[in-house]
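Hi there,

I know you've been waiting on this one. I reran it after we fixed the sequence typo, so this is the corrected version. Both the input and the resulting structure follow.
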Amino acid sequence: AKPKYWQDVLARYGGDRGHERSFLVAEAAHKPRTPIVGFIIGEVRAWEFGSSPCGWVFALSVEPRARLQGVGEALFQAISREFKAAGVDKMRTMVARDNRLHLMFFRSEGMTAGPYLQLEKEIE
């Protein structure tokens, strides 16, 4: 729904960026009409507040018809290897509290609550 945004993300994270920035794509075998069935995007970065460098997953999507076939897990494991190759031993993401699908997926991959709490405020 946001083609300009995704084109910008691909330009920043696609291509050969080493292991610190990753835009990984899962392709379906023998499906010429919908060859891309999922993607995951992340990067290694350190945040303010004293956080040491770690891998951050900030986008993950799997086509609904391809779910429950190991696509998400394969993407998650692949980006985990990229982060490890970049020299970090921890990864993080943020999940909306009401997004049960994402929450259950990341928990099934062994992710748990981390040491930081997100805070927000409406700006008037």
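Quick highlight: The radius of gyration is 15 Å.

Best,
R. S.
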